[in-house]
Every structure is written in structure tokens, then in C-alpha cells.
Fold these 2 entries.
Entry 1:
Amino acid sequence: MKAKILISMMAAGMLLSAGAFAQDERGMDNFTVNMSTYTEFFNQKNFKDAYGTWKWCFDNCEDKVDVKTTKNIFIQGPKIMENVIATREGEAREAAIDTLLMIYDKRIQLYGQEATYLGSKAIMLNKYRPDKYVDVYNMCARVFELAGNSADYNVLKLYMVIALNRYNKEEISKEDMVNIYSAIADALAEQIEKETKEDKKVKIGDAATAVEELFVNSSAADCKSIIDVFTPKFEADPTNVELAKKIVKLLRNGNSDECKLSNLYMNTAIVMYENEKSSAAAHAIGQAYFKRGESAKAEQYYNEAISLEEDNSKKADMYYELGLLYFTGMNNYAKARQAARNALSADPNYGKAYLLIGRVYAAGGKDCGNDAFENKWVYWVVVDQFQKAKSVDPSVTDEANKLISTYSAYFPKESDAFWADMKAGATVTVGCWINETTTARFIK
């Protein structure tokens, strides 16, 4: 009996799907039967046979506007139509695409939520008619206008792709491209921060990464365009912390010293730091001033960064860079050595600090003696530092060995030691500001 009922239902469904609708086409009974019929086929993933009755429901649902009753027509419709599109060619395929796109238009007409469904339409239009990229661009822009930073991340990613395409075709300006990227990046960053579901947070993060890579690898991401666009904006609102953060991020993404050494970067980075003091922000400013040759300002921000840093590994790096600043930027050998020693206090295995001390001694200790013979003693303590470097940090071994080979060549000669009545292995102290005890070694 059950088998006969099932056969009868399937037969009725096939007749209906073929367009044989016996009752009044606007009748509720017919609507209910057609909904049930296409739903049964849909659940079986028989999209071909679902199409006929689904299409009738879609065409005749205006006076049945009830979310509970008709929502599946619009939810399931795109799946049905994409399968229909896959089986058609030529004009029939184009007609099916028209129907697919019409689903979103009618859904907006009947239920609103334009930002949501216009975004879905933009994605489908781009998929099936990529030549309509200007329409896609306008749809994405409209979605962003309506939904703001809560716009769907897939639509925002598509907006970036299409905007970059238009920029490459010289249809929108570099300024437009920079502004669009900046707005999209901010929106995705906000979504990541607010999202509580980890799987969705990852997806949004992937979209944000893709957007950033698209921009950074484009010709729009040059320092000049960013500086030209944002300098007047910052000058008009120099205390706007959010604007400052945005500019700093853009210029950092430029991966260029030109970006990070600009006045705009320095000014905005300082605004950001003064609002939210952090070791990382102070460190970045210190590095930039170092590269700009503004040593006093660099020293100030390095010291602030160090005072705020709790991680000893990072602190060691900062002390080392401060030592380089004293050495190369200020010619203050004593301070350079002290900074290197501070790095070793933070991390006793920080081999680069010993290398720095050795270089500092070589540069600043040439006159630490009473005569030409004693002036060469400094190279013993220089090499001592390089030996210590590789003993605590194998990663610097190659560099340390090269330096040992170079500076060992400056050791006093055996003939000079003979006349000074000094033997190899003797303990001596290199004086003046170095004040290090070492062992005498000679070359022939």
C-alpha cells in the first residue's frame, strides 16, 4: 500500500514538474503541492526534476509572502539554478543565469535585507558574468555603504579584487584604490576582533590576509600615493588616533624604508604611541629615527621601549640595537659597550652582543697604550670577545671566525715582544676606558 502511495506521489510530482498543473495556478492548494513536490526532489538532490515546480513557486509567490512558508524558495533556489546552469548552453544558459540573479532581486523586493542579498547577487554575477565587473563593483560598493564594517567578508574580498581590476584598467584612481583598501582592511580587522566563533574568525582572517596581499603587491601601494592621500587628512585631524593607526599600518605594509622614514610615518607613529604606549610602538619609532640619523630621538625611544618591555629576548634585541646606535650613530664607545653588556644581562647567550663589543674595542681602543707595541694589545681583547660570542651562541660562529681571522692579523709580532721582554701567555691589562685583562699572543 505504501509503495502504491509513493508511486502515485512521484507520478504526480513528475507531472507537476513538467508543467501539468490542474488546479487554479493562483490557488493555495496548488502552491502547497508544488512546494512539497519540489522540496521532495530537492532533498533527494534531484535538482533537474525539482526545477519545474520550484520555478512555478518562484513565479507565483508574491501573494504568499510569509517567511515561514516561502523562505526555502529563495534559500534553495540558487542551488537548483546553479545545477540547471551547468546543464545548459547558449541562450538557455543565459536565461537560467537571469533567473538565478532574479532570485536575489525578488528576495530583496519581498523581504528587504538588501545588503545581504545584493552581496550574494554580486558574487554570482561575478562568477557567471565576469565581464559585468563594473556592475559587480557598484553592487559591492552599495553593500559596503549599507552594512558598513559588518558587510560580509566574502563581499569585501570581492570588492577588493574588482576594485584592483578597475585600478589596473585605469578606471579608478590610485587615491580611490588606497581609500578602498584602507576601508576594507579596517572593516575586516573589526570583524576579526568581534567574532567569537573560531572557525569564522579564521575565515575572516584569511580574507583579510588575501586583501592585504592584493594591495601590497599592487602598484597602488607605493609610499608616495599613500603619503599624498593621507598627509592632508592627518594634518586636518592630527589628534585622530584611529586615523594615525590606519596610516601607520599602510606605511608599514609598504615594506620600504622610504615609507617608514617619512615624516607622515613618524608623526602618526608618535600619535599612536602617545595614546597607547607600548614597547613595540616605541621600538618602531626608535628604529625609524635611527635610520633617519636622528640619534638623540632614537636613543629616547629605544630607552622607552626597553623600559616597557618584559620579554628578555626582545629586550636583548633592543639593547643590541641601542648599542649599534651609540657605536655607529654617536661614536660613544663606552655607552655602546654598556648597552651590549645590558643585552647580555637580559640574555647571556646573545652572541651578537659580544661581536659588538669586539668591534667597539677595535674601533675605540687603538690608542689604549703607551707606545706602538702596547697599542696592539687591544686586539687581544677584541678577539677574546669574538671567542666568547661563538662559545655562547653557535649561530654566530661563522661570523665570529671571520672576525677572529681578520683581527688576529693585528696582534703584536714576536720580534716586538722580544724587545719588550714579554712572553706568550703573559697576563696583561689593556688600560684606558677598556680596562680588560687578557692573555698575550704574538704572530711571527
Entry 2:
Amino acid sequence: MKYLIASFHIQCADNLAQIAKDLLADIAGEAGFESFEDTDQGLNGYVQETLIDQPTLDAGLQAFPIADVHITYTLSPAEDRDWNEQWEQQGFEPIHIASRIVVYDARSTQCPDIAPHEMPIAIEARQAFGTGTHETTRMVIGALIDAQPATKRVLDCGCGTGILSIAAALLGASSCIGYDIDEWSVDNTRHNAALNGVECLEALHGDIQVAEQITGTFDIVMANIHRNIILADMPRLVAKMAPGATLIVSGFYTTDIPLLCNRASKCGLTHAATHSEEPWACLVFRKETS
């Protein structure tokens, strides 16, 4: 996927610099930005070029809540490379989730020691998100376990490495379909499914429109993606949910919970559970049975 980098130049008194950066990150997050890094001049922000909402960004900066802070920015294409390359080479330590699942680096020489009640999942990350090291991934898998996916049909929106679909399959799901806008992620999902002997998982390239073309409905829908995408896609996701189905969403902050719950309520969903590992949140919703 292609990224843009916004170089934000912050002019303010030294005692206002940190709070200005924090507020700027919140405003840019509303406009689709995913990550930030400190610079001598302020912040660099990174956003997928298809997801940037520049009018929202400009409006937020114009209405910046601190009068004595002046912020300008320039946009340019980010270097097209594997941003995870160094992390991928380092690998990751085994991650234990809900005393049921152990996610480990597939490039390790052997599977880690696990308890009799734990299920191993091997993941080899290749330019894709989702190894279990991030709070949102762990929370979604925990909520998936609670949803009891055995014999159920599962949809994984923004499948990344495929870890969520693979977990669902190994927990007994009858079939899993994942989709992602990033071709690297689709290939990585297929690769990791093969590593884990999962045959009931299909990975598709595209966005919500791909899901709409799939025949039938799903018993569990998972979306660990950007908040704005969840908000935009929720009505279409609900249309793909069977009566009584479960929607598990994450990828946003605890401060976003009221916004997501309000959107879900307007889509006819009932709030079933909230999980949080500050500052991240995971929400579970249910569709009425009739």
C-alpha cells in the first residue's frame, strides 16, 4: 500500500510543545493518520494515500484549541519500502492469549513450550499487521474465543497476516473468508494458513465491496482496522451478518468507544462487551435474531 508523510511544523512556546503534539495527533487521527514520530520541528505523520481526509485535517488545524500554537504542514509520498523489515528480521517472542492460544514466530526453529490446553499458531509476518504482539490483536482473539466460533462462518475484514481467521479456523469455524486492500497481506494470509494446515480459509484482495459480493451471511464478523473505515463500513458489514451474529471491532482508542457504540446502535446492533488495554479498545456487538 502507498503512504503519504505529513511533515508538521509546530510553532509555540516550549511549555506548550508536548500538549500541542498530543492534540495534533488526535486531529490527524481523525483524518486517517495511523502513526507519528517526533521531529525537531514537530511531528511526522503517516497515512495511507487512499485514506487521508485532508479537509478534516485542515479544519481541525484551523480550529486548533490553543490560540498561541501555529501549525503548518507539507505532504509528500513516503518511501515505498517494507516498513516492517527490521522488526520482521528480529522476530517476536511467543504470545499467550486467554490461556487458549500461543502465537509464535514461524521462523523460530521450534514451537514454544505450551500447556495442554493451549493451541499453537505459527505466524510469519511479511509486510502485514497481526502477530498478537499488538493489544488490539490480542483483544480480538480473546473476544473471538468468547464468541465460540466452532461450526460458524467467519468474515475477517482487513486480514493482515491472517492471524484472526487462522485462530477462528483452529477453534473450529466451518469456513473463514478474509479480505485486505493490500496484496502483500492477502499473500501473507494464504502463506500462514498453509503453515498452520488451515484449509477452510479463503483470502481475497479488495475492500468492503469484495465482502458484498460473497454469497450468504456470516455468524462472526471481525474488523481490526482503522476507526474511520469501521464507521463507514458498518452498515454494509451488518448487512452481511446473519440474525444473531456477532461483530468484533478494534483498532481504535478507548476515547472512540462512544462514537463506535452510537454508530452500531443506529445500525441496529446491541452492545455486548467492551475490552480495553489502554489506550486501545475492542467492542463486541450482536445483531438481533429477528
